[in-house]
Amino acid sequence: MGFSEPKYVGHCAFRGIALYPEGQPFKARVNYIYGRGLRAGFVPISQAKVYWFICFNNPSPGPRTDDPSILKKQALELMRNWPSDLLDVLHNTPDDVVIKTPLVDRWLWPGFSPAASTDNVVVVGDAWHPMTPNLGQGACCALEDSVVLAGKLSAALKDGGESVEAALRAYGEERWARIFMVTARANLVGSLLQWDNPVVCEFRNNIMIPWFVRLAPFLEHTNFECDLLEPVAST
Which side of the chain, N or C, has fewer Cβ within a 10 Å radius? Predict the structure, then answer.
């Protein structure tokens, strides 16, 4: 459909899920640890599972490695001498659930980027707007796309299906502004959190991050309002 290839943003991520069959020991909160060009975090997602990530600067994505045991060793090497809780999470992660991905995004520039639809073909989620995971909104935006698209198609089908192409265009036009904002903000936040200058990192850790997380607008990107979807009677 003419979209550009997603652009590598200069850092990669390890991700995995630790297993605690007897119950994980952590409180129900997100734990972030910041370094220089390196950060990590973990959060309990059930009584027995803890999700974790490590994000690190890398000038290029590097060669692809699919061997999970090698990936886990690389992740542990990056986290050497980091807090024991984080290392415990990594050690409790089965090799076969560790993944490494280069972080990429695609900015949908107005007037330059292709539309979300061509004729009766339409894209949603990462197929249209891959974004970095720094705001935790990639999958959420895909779900939002689906809700808006369903609403547009529902209205078109009630009209007998004559306006499906127009409905697809309307979906893309409605979603563009929010998608552009979230993609750009995620990219900016990731760049700030991946600083490696020691002086700048001190400012980030002691002033910028505490100030940001106290602001109510910091999480405004998670707000999404939509109309109730009306069922379409089958014919």
Answer: C
